[in-house]
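User: Run a structure prediction on this.
Assistant: Running it now.
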Amino acid sequence: MGIGMEFTLALATLYGKLLGVVGLGYILGRCSPPTLPQRIGDFLFWIGVPLGVLIFLRGADLSGAIALAPVIAWVATLAGAALTWLWSRYQPLPQSQSTGTLMLATMFGNTGYLGYPIILTLLGEQYFAWVLFYDLLGTTIGAYGFGSLIVAAFQPQRARVLPHVELLKALQNPIWWALGLGLWVRNFPLPVTVETSLRVVGWGVISLSLVLIGMRLSQLRSLRHRRSVAAALGIKMVIVPLVLGMILGLLGMTGALQLTLVLQMAMPPAFATLVLSEAYDLDRELAVTAIALGSIALLFTLPLWLLLFPP
């Protein structure tokens, strides 16, 4: 079993993009004003990512059982939470806040800013709708809704942000409007030059999101509890996607679609892990370690999934 030439080239392109663009963001993050990442993040949140959704939905295939995407996302989320909780029973951490942070890290991956460009580069736009539904109806709602309820149980004191407030904030994300509008206008015919220009803009947004990841990684300072984080990343990025990916194959979901869903399940911990850890006064340094080491580990796990689940 091997990786075909087409996907070897796609993987090489992806690695060049990740290392080059994220590396550029890392350098910019070290020498730019500390407020710049927040401004870029605001632009991507309100304009960039919703615009990218509008653009890439035009080439997405909406046929088939696409409603299964969020179901699979929730199965992966609950599996990660259950395995982490069981592991914490045998390897107790020094404080309950650390357990809550590790559960967040294994439940929710960076399926948006990182998942979008990786799957678009490797597999194209055909399965973008699956990626989008997985991210919106699984990760986004899950992290700021269900995730908030989970971590509230591990906080040392009353939360500064209530779970239902976080869920309402998630539902106010402009990407929901972009999804609705994109589904409505996706079949409107456009001149070839306009379509080409839109794709250039869409990939520009993707590149900017990778720059932002690099800038945020440059702001991470401390790496603690590496052994505990390694176990959590093993659950999040190897065990859960491997087992569920094999189950998908047994259920007849094979090929590029199987790989798409496995890659989404295998994304490193989302930045929401850090956001919620800070909001609920959990273990911020543990969240930082999980995000940083998970982003590095992704470079080594990507070829594994192409070998195990060839499209």
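The longest helix spans residues 5-31.
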